[in-house]
Amino acid sequence: MQSAETNTKLNRACLLLALRRYSATVLNMEQTVLLPSLLRDVESDEDEDCFQDCHSATGSSCKDLYDYYLMLKAVRNTVESGLITLDDRKTQTYLAQNKTLEPMLEADPEALFHFHLRGLFSVMGNLTKKSQGVTTKYMDIIGIMN
Amino acid sequence: MQSAETNTKLNRACLLLALRRYSATVLNMEQTVLLPSLLRDVESDEDEDCFQDCHSATGSSCKDLYDYYLMLKAVRNTVESGLITLDDRKTQTYLAQNKTLEPMLEADPEALFHFHLRGLFSVMGNLTKKSQGVTTKYMDIIGIMN
């Protein structure tokens, strides 16, 4: 019986904790990365293939670690303020690509609620890892062993 | 200049406020609906067509207002606890229907973050309206004029 309870606990996660963890990780990144310009033209380990393509093509939208650094800080500001820009162009494009979601909003708002809640939790985990990755790479660049 | 600033303010919305507004609306619904069983077999105004189909078919998943009442309370509990059930079957089905989102998670986590944040805000507004609708309909049933 106790084992079943433990399982239930393990299968639950808290959005608020994920948001706080993200803020703390970005703060740590900011305090470590004292010269953000050193991150320019440094590719993320995950994006190596993409980055190689970028160097052979022009006008590509590949991000270096400096772009990630700025993006992670911008997301942190949104997380901490809780403010949503309703006319955000990026999101508009995103929504246009996901037109299939709209009819479902009417059909099952509870499922849509869980979908977005879980999605937000998942993307926060992903961004937290990216922020840790930027910090680790920066320490690597300036020669500090982890 | 001031007009541009006002526009920016109008185009921003706060998720935290939307969540609080939802909790307050559900609390009001709970305090008004003293006999929830009166909501059984009462269709939502929005679902009239669906409800008529249900009465002619068997095994359909149309919701009456009592189902909505229970669903709105369940969502409120999740909102207030902030806990996400990671093995939720409904969400799993939902995610399976939206496989297109997964490659985008890797491609642009910032856009995905805004997509889910905005989506959550939007669905909270929708559920708040549904909760107000249940309260109004209940008052209508017991003969209280709004």
Looking at this protein, list some descriptive labels.
146 residues, homodimer, 7 helices, mainly alpha
Describe this structure in words.
Chains A, B: It is found in: Cytoplasm; Nucleus. Two copies of one chain form a homodimer. Chain A is built from seven helices and two strands, in the order H-E-H-H-H-E-H-H-H. Chain A has one domain (11-141). Chain A has helices spanning 2-10, 15-32, 48-56, 65-81, 89-97, 101-107, 109-141, and strands at residues 12-14, 83-85. In chain A, helix 2 (15-32) crosses helix 4, helix 2 (15-32) packs parallel to helix 7 (109-141) and helix 4 packs across helix 7 (109-141). Helices cover 70% and strands 4% of the residues of chain A. Chain A is mostly helical. Chains A and B meet through strand 1, helix 2, helix 4, strand 2 and helix 5 of A and strand 1, helix 2, helix 4, strand 2 and helix 5 of B.
